[in-house]
Amino acid sequence: MRLMTFRYAGQDHAGVLTSGSALPGILPILEINSKHDLHLPNSLLEIIRNNISDIPAHGVRPIPLSDIEPRLPYQVPPKIWCIGLNYKTHAEDINAAQPEEPGSFMKPASCMLQPGGEILLPPPEVSDDVDAEGELGVIIGRKCRFVPAAKAREVIYGFTTTLDLTALDVLRKNPRYLTRAKSIDTFFSFGPVIVTADEVPDIEGLEVRNMKTRPLDLVAFHSDFFTLYPGDIISTGCPKGARIKPGDFVRARIDGVGELGATVRQGERRPFGFGE
Q1: Cα dihedral across residues 61, 64, 68, 72: positive or negative
Q2: What's this model's pTM, rounded to 2 decimal places?
């Protein structure tokens, strides 16, 4: 299945994308429930938590994609783990040494932007050297710990596309500033499509060539350190980032998974939340 959260008539809904249909579009979960007398959750995160991977799609009229607005699959992932320098070419691009183990780091949900939304570059005094990276994202589907690589596929719900941004000048000051450099508002997005694992029989067929640590090994590695939960995201790294500036359009595309884009605009220093 190919799943999406979308906005229609002012409300957010979960839905299933049609495939091989003369009338492509999206089938709302609420309409599927009504047609088939089901009680599926109208939430992609709850669908993942309940390990629902087979939803009947027949008999429901799709909403045309032109009538809906794609949204983040869910607003607050339990964990967002990203892998730095997983490609030698990216390490060389930013003059960094590729680590022996996965160079993983976390990002907060507060840094996310909607698919198709705006990346707001920070004021220049905060950062004036930002790059964007398009990556393959792994969506965990089962609570698990100490997963062998040979069993890692069993705990993967699906795959998605991610955008990961970095304030490179902040990072150059000190590698310990990595989390700060990665966590600025609008510095991460994922989706809008989640493709269930059964739709991807050959993970190696995705764009993971030249990746130092492959997706199944990344799942196994991180499960050694902490419990993974349904909805956790592991963004697997990119071959090369691209410096961005106001007016740019950023696009990440993973064949067989989906496409994710955003426009770039210069943000402003606008204080709020306290007395002025």
Answers
A1: positive
A2: 0.93
